[in-house]
Please model this.
Amino acid sequence: MNDSMEGNSVDSRLLYYSRDEIALNFGDYLSDFLYRKMLLAPYFQVDFYHLIGSVIDNQLITWDFEKTTVEDAKIAFWCCGSRSDEPLRKAVYDRCLFFGVRGPLTRKVLGLSEETPLGDPGLLLPILFDKNKRKSAAAGKVICVPHISQMGEFSSPPTDAALVRSPCVHNDEELLMLINDIASADFVLAGSLHAAIIAAAYGTPFAFWDNDFIDIPFKWMDFAASINIEAHFVKNIDEGYFWYQSIREHIKIPSLAKILGCCPIAVRPSFILRAVSFDLGLGKQATRRFELALSGLEVEKNPFIEHMQFFENQRYIRTRQRHRSASKTRRELRQVKNQFRNSLSMFSQYIEKMSVREAEPESTIRFGAEDVGLSLLLDGWTTPEHGESFPWSVVRKAGVRLPLGSGWENAAEIIIEGYIFLPKLERINSRSLRVWMENKLVFYKELRNDSAEQSVLEDFSVKVPRQFRVLDKDLIIEFELDQIGSPHDLGLSEDMRELGIGLKRIEYLFYPENR
Model:
């Protein structure tokens, strides 16, 4: 890839057609784009990765293996597709790992389980990029996107299309312009499969175009089956409109969460959230609130992630991967599947609760096991477990993000209620609590416990400084407690957590005129 391409820092093990060319087919370049925007670093270490495309083929895979001197090199495929109904030879198949496939025809060719996730990663674009018709020359028009091999044949729009959009791009800007045009058009005549995939993803009417050339018919049939329709090719716009009207009610986009959930490369948590929201049909406001909560996770922003993309330099890791037993690989896959299922269930519950509360901000935010307040916690909190009904802070300073628009900006004071871990012991006389608001100390109290309980319930209020109420951003509140040791350290129980505050609720007190 030339130096002008934004993707030149992507893991060199990522393979796609014409990666080193100046001009790229946009469908192939999507793998580079999605890797940089949605993914973090591989947790299944192999020699090569294919993330998109009709690349499951005996000859193509053999050529891939010839790109390395590593004996018994392995390739991971994420939701890719076969080029034909010809099965892979055993010697090739045994060196491949399949993490989902594009469609049911590929799944059948490979002999994979019916539970194998389906769906082309190009379907993920709506959770990454919002279309903007005002910035599209194709808005309200019919466009044609030919196959890249046919671009030289068109000096003017073919058939009755208003615009021809080249599938060839040079950088992210051109890629996003093409995606926006496909998403904004009134109709897309697709000679390029990914033009049809993107149109389907954004709900743009489309048809498969037969211009006396159909590139790999099997891939079109495979994708069509993945969205619950049969492949049919049309010669012109009128035929395309008629065909689309006959199938549009049958289109079913595969689960985006399942596509991300089977990825061999770690996915940024915010995109898992967006995928779950998309599958549930929830609005962007609910999704945005949870994204703000997730943005505090170190995995979303820690610079060391950039270095994790180049594990190929650490050969001992790759050597270890090549000698793993098949049973260990299967065990890891089950663990990943179970972790994702649990995350999906948790996000679904929280998002459903948030969606019914969008219309009018609540004055009280609770933090019980099934309350949406848990989505607002930053790093350093437990998840309620073992019969607990609220989260505990387990670091010296733990924070909460109160979203802009949730009501705090109109509040005169904020009431906070929670338990402070403070057992009555000879070695512990008191514990100090500090509350910070946007890094400003707004509350301090020296706490004591004269009861036999291990924790003391505190209910206190903090004023919202006037300068904070005009901030056009979320409000960060942090609770700081000096560390006194875990219940285990203090000889009270087997609990190894260094408990601070057990947060029960946050309530807004409004000025009378702002109620």
Notes: The two ends are 58 Å apart (CA to CA). Residues 1-9, 293-326, 350-361 have pLDDT under 50 and may be disordered. The chain has three domains: 6-123+256-349, 135-242, 361-514.
